[in-house]
Every structure is written in structure tokens, then in C-alpha cells.
């Protein structure tokens, strides 16, 4: 029982930051994301066999860390239970981009794992079940199992059965949409998102205010996506990224993920928009200094030229909105 699948990372416009249940990776707020095309992609093969004595996971040719192994086991445990099977699996995963190259590989990696494992087990799962399986590997992965614009509903149930992602619009909805990724550091982040979000929830006084204001902003961004109102969406996206980094800085000890180049990009985008007399681009930062810039096709070349001028930007990649995971082989 073997299957191979691909999945791509997603970038959140409205960010997930803070869990209500660490083990089940249940979030304290809804989030909205865009699944990227295969510019960056993870490919995972899962092979279940009664001959295997234990589960194994190799990522980019290297045995997985304890944490990666633990998270992958949570995905397998959920799916094996659904299939009523107990045999072990060999998992091989690879990325078409270097791990630690500043692109979050966990969202695509665990999404590819959930999709491949479900296919190998021949499970005919509903989209919410696949999303839950991926969520157990990494929260943000539950959005990468779906293409286009995606909302992860935080849910309210203790067992997490209502915490999964749904599509808001598919990859054809907004053809002009572009995501330009500017790499400002190739270093792995100093504080991982699990530890970082816990610190914010435990210590930031501003965090409660963020949670209070998010539901309205989520509704506004959904409306902006539906109407393809880029100026509204881009304004919300920048304010949201700044809100996230405000509560990070308000945590104790403070979480400082942006670097000097990130701040130069922020200023450059505001200058770019002022010159265009239009909100033509938006920056968005996760728990790291690399920048995802949302823009439209007509502004792409000019925007890239402006970002290239910034010292400290080592690489630039462009993606369109992606279609989500694919099962390549199943035997
Ligand atoms: O799922 P994780 O643990 O990789 O957390 C992702 C958190 C952010 O990237 C900062 C925000 C998000 O919604 O993707």
C-alpha cells in the first residue's frame, strides 16, 4: 500500500498565532491563507507494509528530527485509526527548495504526508478529515490540503473535530493575483512557531485585544477576496502582519523575527504604493524575516525591480495562486 503526493506551502493573509490546545494544534483564532503554486513544492511517498518493524521518516535524504517524527506520527495515528490498520509505514519526503532556505516547508510537508498516507490506505475521506489529519502534523498544513483562498475555522469542540479548513475561492478566481517572496535570510528561525506562540499567549497583554478585533477583520478580508478588491485586501494584510509582529514584540522576552532588510521592504512597499497612488502591493511576514508580497500581475515587474534595489534581499520568487495537493501515484 503505497502512494506519492505533492503539496505546496500556503501564506496566511490573516495569521494563526496561538493555540487553545497544544497537543491537537487547535488555534485561538480563524486564519485565511493563499495556497501557492508549485514554485515551492513538497513530494512525499508513504509505504505501509506488514514487513516493516517500525515507522520511519526521511526528509531530503536525512532521518527526521524527533519533533518531525512525533508530528508525523500524529498524522499516521489518525489515519491508521480511520483505516482500522496497524501496520508501519516508511515515509520519504523531499522539497524542491532547500530546507532552512527561509520558506516554511512544514505546511506543504505535512499536507503532502496526510494526502499520500490517506491515498496509500485507500481511504475515501471528506476534505475536512484530510484537513484535520494535516493539522495534527502542523497547524498551518491544514490549509495547504486545499487550493486557492482558504479559511481555517478555529472550531470550538474539545476534540478538534470542527477545526479544519474550507475553500473560500479556487485558484481560478483571481488570475491576476501574485505572491512575490523576497528572501532576506537563509537561517533557520531562532524561536520556532510552537514556542513563540506559547510565549505570546502567556505573556503579551496586547494579544487579547488582537483576538477581539480579528473576527471583524476576517469578515472584511473574506469580502475583499470575494469582490477581488485588492486595495482593501492589501491594506488589511499589511495591518494584520503589523498586528502579529506587535504582539510578538509585546511578548516577554520579546520575539523579534524581522531584520533590517524586512523593515526596508516595509518602507519600500509604502513608498511604492504612495507613488502609484494606489495600494498596489502588501507585505506579509510570518515568524521570520522573509517577506511575502501580494500584488497584481500588472505591478509585478515594477515591484520586483524596486525590491531588487534593497540591499540584503538575496533572492526573489514569484507564485500565482495554486491548486493544492495532487496524488501522483497510488498502488
Ligand atoms: O503551523 P505552524 O506551526 O508552522 O505555524 C504557522 C504560524 C505562522 O506562519 C506565523 C502564521 C500562519 O498562519 O501561517
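^ C-alpha cells above, recovered residues below v
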Amino acid at each position: 500500500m503505497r502512494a506519492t503526493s505533492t503539496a505546496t506551502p500556503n501564506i496566511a493573509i490573516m495569521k494563526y498565532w496561538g493555540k487553545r490546545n497544544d497537543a491537537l494544534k487547535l488555534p485561538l483564532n480563524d486564519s485565511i491563507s493563499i495556497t501557492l503554486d508549485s514554485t515551492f513544492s513538497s513530494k512525499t511517498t508513504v509505504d505501509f507494509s506488514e514487513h516493516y518493524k517500525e515507522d520511519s521518516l526521511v526528509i531530503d535524504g536525512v532521518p527526521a528530527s524527533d519533533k518531525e517524527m512525533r508530528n508525523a506520527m500524529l498524522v499516521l495515528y489518525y489515519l491508521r485509526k480511520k483505516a482500522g490498520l496497524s501496520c508501519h509505514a516508511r515515509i520519504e519526503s523531499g522539497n524542491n527548495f532547500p530546507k532552512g532556505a527561509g520558506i516554511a516547508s512544514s505546511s506543504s510537508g505535512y499536507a503532502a504526508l496526510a494526502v499520500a498516507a490517506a491515498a496509500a490506505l485507500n481511504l475515501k475521506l471528506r476534505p475536512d478529515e484530510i484537513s484535520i489529519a494535516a493539522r495534527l502534523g502542523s497547524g498551518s498544513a491544514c490549509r495547504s490540503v486545499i487550493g486557492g483562498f482558504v479559511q481555517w475555522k478555529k472550531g470550538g469542540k474539545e476534540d478538534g473535530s470542527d477545526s479544519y479548513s474550507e475553500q473560500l475561492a479556487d485558484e481560478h478566481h483571481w488570475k491576476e493575483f501574485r505572491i512575490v517572496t523576497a528572501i532576506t535570510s537563509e537561517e533557520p528561525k531562532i524561536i520556532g512557531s510552537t514556542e513563540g506562540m506559547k510565549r505570546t499567549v502567556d505573556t503579551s497583554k496586547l494579544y487579547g485585544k488582537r483576538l477581539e478585533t480579528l473576527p471583524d477583520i476576517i469578515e472584511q478580508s473574506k469580502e475583499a477576496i470575494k469582490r477581488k478588491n485588492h486595495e482593501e485586501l492589501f491594506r488589511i494584510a499589511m495591518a494584520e502582519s503589523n498586528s502579529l509582529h506587535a504582539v510578538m514584540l509585546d511578548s516577554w522576552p520579546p520575539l523579534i523575527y524581522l531584520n533590517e532588510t524586512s523593515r526596508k521592504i516595509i518602507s519600500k512597499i509604502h513608498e511604492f504604493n504612495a507613488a502609484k497612488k494606489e495600494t498596489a502591493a502588501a507585505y506579509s511576514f510570518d515568524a521570520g524575516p522573509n517577506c511575502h508580497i501580494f500584488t497584481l500581475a500588472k505591478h509585478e515587474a515594477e515591484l520586483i525591480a524596486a525590491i531588487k534595489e534593497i540591499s540584503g534581499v538575496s533572492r526573489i520568487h514569484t507564485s500565482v495562486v495554486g491548486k493544492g495537493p495532487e496524488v501522483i501515484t497510488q498502488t
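The longest helix spans residues 207-226.
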